[in-house]
Amino acid sequence: MNVSAAGTLDVNGLDYTILAIYFAVVVAIGLLARRAIATSEDFFLSGRSLPAWVTGLAFISANLGALEILGNAANGAQYGFAAVHFYWVGAIPAMVFLGLFMMPFYYGNKVHSVPEYLRRRFNAPTHFFNALTFAVAQVLIAGVNLYALALVVKSLLGWPLWLAIIVSAGLVLVYITLGGLSGAIYTEVLQFFVILAGLIPIVVIGLHQVGGFGGLVDRVHDRTLLDTWQQSGVGHWKNPLGDWLGLVLGEGFVLSFGYWTTNFAEVQRALSAKDMSAARRTPLIGAFPKIFFPLLTIVPGMIALVTIPHFGGEGGPDYNDAIPALMGRLLPNGVLGIALTGLLAAFMAGMAANASGFNTVFTYDIWKPYVARDRSDRYYLNVGRIATVVGILISVGTAFIASGYGNIMNYIQLLFSFFNSPLFATFVLGLFWKRTTPWAGFWGLVAGTAAAAAMHFAAFHIGYFYPGGHLDPTHATINAQMANFYGAIVAFVVDVVVTVAVTAVTRPKPDRELAGLVWRLPSEGGLVEAREPRRHWWESEPLLGSGALGIALVLSIVVLFVK
Amino acid sequence: MSEQSGTGSANRSRRLFDLRYLISGLFLVYGAIEVVTGLLDSAAELAKADGIRINLWLGIAMLVLGLVFLLWARLRPLRPADHDDGG
Predict the structure, then answer these.
(1) Most buried of A286, A306, A529, B66, CB within 10 angstroms?
(2) Whole-structure pTM value
């Protein structure tokens, strides 16, 4: 990411005051949340006590890291309106699926983590493989987040890179180590509102400047940027995001379902809810704000494209600079401080989500079963705190390494998004096909992960992924998103094929060991919470889920007629 | 329901504080700062924001959000093991 072209912002004492107030509040949250922590479950899962609106907003906020905000603004500038697919085809259906179909298995079994579900459904090797890849991925992604944060601080405020890295890591360390998951979740909810307060003024002023939404559409020179489903025919695609098959199966089905339903950093927010209904409503409540985020990310990306000279081209700011560049051009001091606070808060929350997911999986899924069993609860609470400190120190290290390789962060981000695709295949088979054997789970996961990595490198040599079908020897013009979609499909298919093949030659678990872990195989008392009496009609999960899907569908149709 | 709920969480751990007061507090402070800034904005700052009094409007919106959370927390306070949507 090259943010330097956006120029340093004219921040003054007022903006710094606003920033300082936020940081003070975040540290206070850590200190206050610490008083409520007596057991390891309080630390790792907030004692399973939080109401649905808190976990729902934290769920969406943990995903609303600054890489997501800057990345989708960049997508808006680069791919135009087609980028709405990341939200309405991708995220929303997956979040609804998680809330309606998968959460009963996670929450009803009282598992602490996603890997723990794999241990009970399959076997210890599957569990260990997943716990390890997850822990490594979280630390690396936290490092990339940290590096990106430091870059933004450096270019917007002029701080040196090392100072920015250490200050931001220190703040995250304070509120996670002290406050555990509660500290992270409370900060995420607060941050959700601060980010909205920072982004909305950019959109309001930006749209005002270009003459409203119609003015924005009129001023887009490259008319293919107004396509959403248009020109996405398989075999002869001209759509900015490739063909519909990759979009629907790759992005919509495998990548999004994989990310939202198996990424523990997300699922952990729902596991901290106070009861089954609240856990299921967590992703459903999060889906409603998510539907409207394109307005706050893709639209500013397109505003930047039409208002900033040479944007995304020679001598102009990079696509990733859309939001920072608009902040510098449009926001007077005061609002500028709020927007800056929101952006930095988003970076720290993204990193905090990784850190809290990491410490839980490390403690419960690596240290406890494989290193030190049967210790006191106090012992595991301390392991969690130490794991957080060590994890963040390693991320600081990887942040410095990443700073030596300017563009490696995109690749790390891409590579680790692959781990979710095979995992999702293993989950779907394990959940809906009770015959799936323990070793099939393991080998399917290993083969799928290997296939994802292989496809990532092979895609550069396949002409179909280049515009017009012409293989570019420098690999510069490859449609990276499209290659990513197809990579996910390949990983998913390989995982399914290997899982089914291994299942055919190995012995499945008996039904009684799978009770509560497989669809239509209820345990004796595990899922009773699902049948507790409902109190209000608006707390109905099917209503919330179909409502979110309905709004996304209507918006998807409306945007077809923008052109 | 309230009769059986008191014992479960009381001896296990102390309750988490009410997040709604914190959100309310932060946004009332931010809102006040923004309203004052908005009233004092110079012509140059107005021009930068394309003529919109953005500090003032954002300040008012933040004050409203702060008051909404304050009201919500006051009207539906936390009770032990509350199964309502309070927080």
Answers:
(1) A286
(2) 0.85
